[in-house]
# Entry
Amino acid sequence: MGKMVLEGITVVDFGSAWAGSLVSRTLGDMGARVIKVESLKHIDVARILPPWVSGQPITLNNSGYFNYMNRNKLSITLDVSTPRGLELCKKLVAIGDFMIENYALGVMERLGLGYEAVREVNPRIIYVSMTALGSKGPMKNYVMYGRPQVYLSGLAHTTGYPDQPPHCMNLSWGDPVASIHAVIAALSALRYRSKTGKGQFIELSQGEGMIGLQPESMMDYILNGRVRTRQANRDEFMAPHNAYRCKGGDLEWVTIAVAGDEEWESLCNVMENPLWAKDEKFADSYSRWKNQEEMDRHIEEWTQRYTNTECTEMLQKAGVAAFPTMSNKDLVEDPHLNARGFFQEWDHPELGTKRYDGLFWKLNKTPGRIEKRAPLMGEHNHYVFGELLGMPQEEIDQLVQEKVLF
Amino acid sequence: MQESALSGLNVLEFGNLVSAPYCAKLLADLGAEVIKAEAPGLGDEARRREPFAEDRPGIERSGLFAYLNANKRSITLDPYTAAGKKLFLELVKKADILVENNPPSLMERLGLTYDVLEKINPMLVMTSITPFGQTGPHRDYKAYELTVYHGGGYGYLSTGCFSEPVMPPIKAGGRQAQFGAGQVGTAATLFAVLARDQIGAGQHVDISNQEVMAGLYESAIEHWTFTANEIGGVTNPVVQPMLPLQCKDGWVFIMCIEDFQFNNFVKVMGNPEWAKNELFKDRFSRASYIDALTPLLTEWTMQYTKDEVFRMAQAGHVPLAPAYTAQEVVNSPQIIARDYFVEIDHPEIGQVRYPGAPYTLSETPWRIARRAPLLGEHNEEIYCGRLGYTRQDLVKLTAAGVI
# Structure
């Protein structure tokens, strides 16, 4: 087992849902001790998000979403809105290296846990604040979630079919984009601190991160005044470039993307050089791009004779970029991902043994690990307050009675 | 001038298009020195991708390239030639980090695998970003953006095969998958850089674009392993309204996860009589009757522009946002107030704005110190200044097609 890069690093985690939780989870995967701060007064919304095991009554501990997002973390239930809770939180902050939060703008300040207050206790801390739209500007207090952010960032306008509404990807893409950006900033700040001893404040607007992932449409407007719109699967110059129906019908698709004549000829060879493909309309890249709607119908006649894995194997062997449109089930059963050890199983007192997706980066000498399942609500109160902060048992019991630990 | 978080780190980039260049850009913008090795004459493929300034193609005119490669120095180098390979290895010797996104089989053919490079520079962090990773049965599969977006599961979530009429599932605009892989590449590279100080050695970072997408899948994997629900639970919201609504001039997206948010929206709409209907009493019931609810909501939103609906909804604390175009993003008062876009001057493109910092760091700011390089612009600076070649050597190397 490799060494842990972040061994000895402590994260005070006020992250919730996806964006904040993924930052601390990533640090935890590489060895940091992550202390997730919640209370019954304010639980992480992920605890009440689907999926749940069919037929199992919903508890605070058995959400698939929560368990996916909070492996390797410790959970404490500390009501920081009480004076005693705040005092204890500051003791935690004093031993922390990172503080992560993605509350609405101003919440941490109102709780007395804004950067200025935290820095007074611990000037070495690296404080990551992930607000929806940033801490200044006319929209700074707007209420946002990941999917509306896909709209506001301009991405939905270029996602979808031309004659259908803008599409939100059915996923909060802005969340992980912000999370991984936050990890990059946090690790850079850690390197700086190891050289200078100085902590710092990192701020992200979750909406802005996604704008930087769309230079094609942003720069087309800036350079040419052109507003790009929805093109479904179409590319700027590649064609064929689409998902094609396979033998299994509406739920089985293979994507094929062809750049240039060489790949086109390989595709034609695999399709056994049908007559239609010799038509002038498809003779060069530009003509294929112009006539792709008609070409796609022909290609689909061929793909429908096979399964999407058959299409993939035949085409890849010939050097054509083809691959199934993978469902969640396809991914879990995928021989390639399994050969790489992407999925992991672990046990949980309420869920039993379940499979989860694991780390999505591989370092050959310090790989990181999944050591702990996601914590039950308040599971580590005794460890954190007793062992880490050295409080006697009676005092902890007292805090429970006073609903400071709640 | 404040210090940079990553100053003193030397990065060699041997990459094309988006994933490796974005990875190296994130490092460069925080202070690392990036040398970009490009193919003589051709350069990075992104140089030949749209959009071009004023729609006039040219390898120094791509907005995509100029955005991704500011803050870097460009050298040309053909690693297929013996002399070019020698130059590459000399650069590797001086580098802290090598970022590349070439097919694993190509790196093997070139003799530039981690095993080889580690012997030349044991402290090297080598980050390889590829569609399917360095190992496994699909590692040599060919792939483009479309392939990895659908291959990582995101296509199946999209509109398309689950809508009426059935249409092909689709990818998002641009190259989201490759950008995602680039980001993860940067984070993982920094883990390896931090580990260097502890283990006294570099290492190989293997990023699979498919894994990045499948790992950033918002619990869709668990939808299968927990409920054997292939997709419905992910794409059909169990609470509503969570959908696009048409306005006079475009669309907005409303997302009321909690009941109070919808109640707020009812107030914003002026408490219409229909809102008292039992069918719409809570978020689950609204999901069951969303087909009846949508036209009623649309009747109201169609009276206004998307920005009017946006302002009214947000004043009532309703999570709702308009579908902005690139033009509306660039000119958004919020984006302008935060000085998000940054101006950079460039001899062929002129002085224009580019997307800016994804984060602000109080002590070690993100910054653009130099525009994107012209192809081979820094050959003399690097080969003569750093590796000790003479200008006459460069003449010979150029004539031989090495640089």
